[in-house]
Amino acid sequence: MSGLRQRRWRVRTSILAVILCWLFAGTAASAGDARDDAPRLLAITIDDLPWAVMDGLSEAQLQSRHERLMRQLDLAGVPVTGFVNEGKLEVDGKVDPQRLARVEDWVTRGHVLGNHTHGHVDLHAVGLEAFQEDVLRGERQLRPMLAAHGTAPRWFRHPYLRAGRTPRDRAALDAFLAKHGYRVAPVTVDNSDWLWAAAYRNVLDGLSNEAARERTLARLRTDYVPYMFDKIDYFDRQSRQLLGRSIAQIWLLHANELNAEVFGELVEGARARGNRIVGLDEAMRDPAYARGAEGYDGPRGPSWLHRWAIGAGKQPGFFTGEPETPAWVVALAGFDSE
User: Fold this and answer.
1) Strands (E), the chain
2) Which pTM was predicted?
3) Were 318 and a residue from 79, 183, 314, 327 both cysteine, which residue would form a disulfide, CB within 3.0 to 4.6 Å?
4) For residue 220, which of 176, 247, 254, 257 has the smallest C-alpha distance?
């Protein structure tokens, strides 16, 4: 090959290499953009079935409010995992058929049910042995009910998200749960929906002035929905800062009057913000959950993301910016603080 031909070949090769690098870089950037734009996975869980707060309500009221929530779930058409407190099925120590039927309604509509203990007991208050006994009491109706539908309870949710004060207690409880066929259902998107619901319930059942009642209920609904979206966004940022990516999040809600009105809005808005609603099984395939409830030995029940952050030695500044319930809502709920 002549010198001129060699130079032309080298120039062409260099140009080709530049073009290939440019195309590859563009492809890589596009792939990175696709990952960033990919839907964030979000599983929805609802605690305290058949109803979070039942005191003072007649069976007719409970049935009406249950039906409102179930209509919302039907219209939303998303998978939900509900967690049952079997103690709430009882009246004067005996299982009430109407309350049991409301729980079975979740199964017949295609949702998954898990165990939330019999009495919504606090592991840190009652101790490991008593807590384990309450777990088993919490499946006396649930297990045969699900067996009649060809399945079994597979998920367990700690009341108050309190998972044990020591690694030893957590390991012992995990082993006990596994022996009985359960896997712990974590919570990453924690919130105070129970506090908003208390305010909503107090106004709904306690404010006699109809016009003032409807105005206040509307304001609670209007402000609650963006509060919940802010919580989702906050915990997604926590995930990115702690783990470098958006993990599949698990959202905690409760069976209450407020969610019975706005569940559809919550689902629609979550989707509009880039979330894909998935079942708990799919969310739990995220390798982040292999960490379990490690990292936190205190008395409270924080989000699993905060547990992991504490275990990683994150300083207080890491946790700042979490949305708070407004003071006027706290006051309506009848509490001094969140």
Assistant:
1) 40-49, 80-84, 90-91, 94-95, 112-115, 155-156, 183-184, 249-254, 275-278
2) 0.89
3) 314
4) 257
Q: What is the pLDDT of residue 39?
A: 82
User: pLDDT tier at 38 (50, 70, 90 boundaries)?
Assistant: confident
Of the candidates 288, 289, 292, 295, which has an alpha carbon nearest to the alpha carbon of residue 311? 295
Q: Virtual CA dihedral for 281, 283, 286, 289, nearest 10 degrees?
A: -80
CA–CA distance, 302 with 63 (Å, rounded to integer): 32
The number of residues making up the chain comes to 338
* Rg of the chain in Å (alpha carbons): 25
Which residue from 23, 2, 17, 34 is spatially nearest to 274, judged by alpha carbons? 34
Residue whose structure tokens are 């049935």: 63
Measured CA to CA, the distance from residue 313 to residue 331 in angstroms comes to 35
Q: How many Å apart are CA 13 and CA 87, to the nearest integer?
A: 76
Residue 334, token pair as written in the block: 């009848």
Q: Could you count the other beta carbons within 10 Å of the beta carbon of residue 171? A: 13
Residue 20 has pLDDT above 60, yes or no: no
CA-based torsion, 165, 169, 173, 174: positive or negative = positive
Select from 186, 164, 165 the least CA-distant residue to 291.
186
pLDDT tens sequence across 297-337? 999 999 999 999 999 999 999 999 999 999 999 999 999 99
Q: Residue 316, preceding bond cis, omega within 30 degrees? A: no
In which region does residue 334 sit, left (phi positive, over 0), alpha (psi from -120 to 50) or beta (all else)?
Answer: left
Separation of alpha carbons 94 and 72, rounded Å: 30
Residue 56: what pLDDT? 94
77: alpha, beta or left, given left = phi > 0 and alpha = psi -120 to 50? left
The single-letter DSSP state of residue 93 is: T
What six digits make up the tokens of 284? 């739990």
